[in-house]
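README: folding subset

This subset contains proteins for which both the sequence and a predicted structure token string are available. Records are stored as plain text. Below is the entry for tRNA-uridine aminocarboxypropyltransferase (198 residues), shown exactly as it appears on disk.
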Amino acid sequence: MSRQICLKCQYPMIACLCESINVINITNEVIVLQDPNEVKHAKNTVKLLSLVIPQVKIVVGETPDDFASLISFLTHTQKAIYVIYPAKESACMDDIKPDKDAILLFLDGTWRKVFKMMSLNPWLNDFPALHLNLDAPSQYNIRKAPREDSLSTLEAVALSLQAIDKQNNINPLHQALNAMVDKQLQFMPEKARKRYDK
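--- output ---
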């Protein structure tokens, strides 16, 4: 028997997050380039991100052909464009302070997949890369990451929006993430759950 899915949040009914979703509007244009393997990953945060910020654009793919429409759009826009990625030559977002209408590109996938996506898409190097000034570890502790500066895509978007404008209310993003983490922990055996105690 297939699981019942909530028609509103698209999570299984037993993990419904509707009560924890508070929609917000933003002035920046957020575009997520998502690795195909992440689309149906239960712990992926991009679906959650799009529930809180419905205007987020998600483009699934790996190669320039997959992103052809996006590349065309970015070529013709007059807005500033930034890739949020901690490359060696990236600048700190706090120092650059992008405009409130700038386009922010995020790559969603494992570190290995994101690195591969950057390698396969040299057109991304046409835009300045920015990294975040992290003063606290990721709260998304139910998914393993090889680096201490790892963030979920939702967290990266939240911190980017706050760096651009301190008045941006990013609390709904963190509230939704915490709710999802709590739901995931509920379904884990007690022994496994202890590994993720905050």
